[in-house]
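Protein in question kept in full:
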Amino acid sequence: MYKQIYNFYNSFGEYFLNLYYKNKVNIINPVFINEQINKNSIKTLLIVCSPGFNENITNANYLIRIGFAKGWSEKYGKAVLVSIFDLEKELNNHEDPVIFISCYDFTFLKFPFLKILRKYKLFVWVSVHPRKLNEYEGKVILKKDELDFEIWRSVYSKILYVEPNFVWNSCNNEKFDYWYRGWVDDGLNWQTMHPAIDNSIYFPDTANEKFKDIKISYVGGYWQDKSRAFDEYLRKYEEIFFPFGYSSWPYKNYSGKIKLDQERKLYSNCGLIPLVTSPSGWLIGEITERYFKAPACKAFCIADENPTFKDIFQNGEFLISSNKEEFHHLVNEYLLGKIDSEFWRKKGYEAVIKNHLYSNRAEQIISAL
């Protein structure tokens, strides 16, 4: 009797917990389809979205998935954003779909369903290998709500069980060998794959006077880890620095949220967009979508010392600093009018538009499956 009552309340609580989380996935426009591709040639990509995905908040969680959806549909016909809670049902609506899923998504999946997933082609966006997490955790300063290492550890066995076609993240060879090689040692295939450009959103848009007087600007969230980089790289320019973002910055000229079409105009027209990430990003060589989307709008950019950025691009394509001292030297040269910013706008744009569209990433995925 007591066992029956326990099971009832346990399943009852799980039902409402799942209902609560399900409402935290906000997908407004789920389907991306290219009508120009013959129906018999269409390959469908299901892009899994978990709690935190919200089409009303245009952060990296949103932009990367939307970018992959558009790039895939352009090349192969159809992509669908799918709530993690609807994935099992959605699998039955498509013939032999490919699945884009992240390690975080596995938090919401139980082993009986994982057995079903093993039948499909899928690739997993992974984090630092779990055997390296203690070291990584000891070297970064993050609040629990910024990066939950226990989630990474808890999904490890689930990822291995589904035997994905490949796992991936963005880094260079050195950082892969140190932080990610464990996935290959576990018997999984690896792909180094970077974010890219959604060129339906990010393109040169110079017909705007609104942002031309801004000397330095940045668009992005502000939190503890990134704040360390911002204070080292950007604080000294506070009087002429105008940051935008969905979270408030403790800077004098914080200018609030900015819509995507205005973000594009900002990049295209303001003086300088610094490409600065965070100490945790530098440590593992993480490349964010910012390194591509700003140059895609012909922004004038000066990059930090991210080692992966240096490996992706050739000398002469971008101004890339080796450390914060060189970064400040380059910024000061720009402010003194000693750098031909128009030359570097053109070079940066040409460098990213050549090989870094999301359609290029779709081709990489197909080759790796």
Observations:
- The first strand starts at residue 31 and ends at 33.
- Residues 43 and 76 are 5 Å apart (CA to CA).
- The two ends are 50 Å apart (CA to CA).
